[in-house]
Amino acid sequence: MDKETEPPESSELISRRKFLIFLGILFGIIILGLSLIKNAGVKVINKFRIRSIEQIPQFDFAAWQLTVEGLVDMPFTLRYNELLQLESEEQVSDFHCVEGWSVNEVKWKGIRLKTIFDRAGLKSEAAYVTFHSGSGIYSDSLSINEALEQDVMLAYMMDDEPLPEEQGRPLRLVMPRMFGYKNVKWVNRITLTEEQEIGYWERFGYKIDGVSYP
Ligand SMILES: Nc1nc2c(c(=O)[nH]1)N[C@H]1C(S)=C(S)[C@@H](COP(=O)(O)O)O[C@H]1N2
Ligand SMILES: [Mo]
Prior knowledge:
Sulfite Oxidase, Chain A, domain 2
């Protein structure tokens, strides 16, 4: 046998295999590390990544109130136990954040906007509705027609449990057709307006229609 066709030394083979295994492990560690960095500090509840620009507003069962005001004939406030007595509905809908993550088939229970609007009596000039977080910092708005679309509700239950505090306890807007930022958490004030009010994230470039990309 001449030198060219001689099989490689077996020790050389092993070291090449070891090297490949080493490379595989190294890449594995790098990818794991990158995904840990990307998800660091992201809290996940009910498969939702918790997204809040503000501190969780305190929920005091006895003191909490929902206020409905603006261009309505009969502004009103409701306590939490009165809210639970309003006609309620359940739905299962998907949730999409503009960042690209989704949660499929979330079960919600809550109140349709029609129930709120009927009780308040909308003035003829009322064309938009703004949902305010109890923090006073976050809000977003819909047209009346959007608010009356099917699958839109003010939810107080999620997957058969009261809303977790990180996810809006006691009340959040659910608007499945639009991105997450329209789904205001900790809603405690609803105002009816003639012009559409710009929501929190819309001041930073997200679209007021809740469906198109910046
Ligand atoms: N009050 C309030 N509501 C909010 C937000 C917020 O920062 N504050 N973030 C919005 C965004 S961008 C998303 S994606 C969803 C996230 O809901 P989650 O925290 O239950 O996952 O809440 C929306 N509602
Ligand atoms: Mo979001």
